């Protein structure tokens, strides 16, 4: 079951997707997929290479930025760059979607794109509590 959670017109996040959901992502108009889940985090989880092949088969850009725990400044910058370079909506996923929205939102807060309050509201509307992770 697809659980793509819209955050903005340019971003949706999701818990772990299946390889066949890459087709659904393409059908819904996403242009880029960001995988924030490290390979081998859970037995049976599809690998980054499998997702890369599935995305390529659908004409989607694919980026693997694995995050363990809290995102590093390099990971935040990497996600920010993907958004800057994407030619359309982005779907980011990890195990629950939390690392994906946190990594994105920190970059948005640091860049001044959205205020802390706006990001907390966007997160809440998508089902995530960002109040404890965003700089005051």
From TrEMBL:
Domain (Beta-lactamase hydrolase-like protein phosphatase-like): give its ranges: 3-110
Q: Per its UniProt entry, which superkingdom is the organism in?
A: Bacteria
InterPro entries, A to Z: BLH_phosphatase-like, Prot-tyrosine_phosphatase-like
Which Gene3D superfamilies does this entry report, sorted A to Z?
Protein tyrosine phosphatase superfamily
Q: Which molecular function terms from Gene Ontology are attached?
A: hydrolase activity
Task: Provide the protein name.
Answer: TIGR01244 family phosphatase
User: What species is given as this protein's source?
Assistant: Phenylobacterium hankyongense
């Amino acid at each position: 079951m697809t659980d793509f959670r819209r955050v903005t017109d340019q971003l949706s996040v999701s818990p772990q997707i299946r390889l066949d959901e890459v087709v659904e992502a393409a059908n819904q108009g996403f242009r880029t997929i960001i995988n924030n889940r490290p390979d081998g985090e859970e037995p049976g989880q599809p690998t980054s290479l499998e997702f890369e092949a599935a995305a390529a088969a659908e004409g989607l850009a694919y980026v693997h930025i694995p995050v363990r725990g809290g995102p590093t400044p390099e990971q935040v910058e990497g996600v920010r760059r993907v958004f800057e370079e994407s030619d359309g909506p982005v779907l980011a996923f990890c195990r629950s979607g939390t690392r994906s929205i946190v990594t994105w939102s920190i970059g948005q807060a640091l860049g001044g794109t959205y205020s802390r309050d706006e990001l907390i509201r966007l997160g809440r509307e998508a089902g995530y509590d960002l109040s404890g992770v965003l700089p005051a």
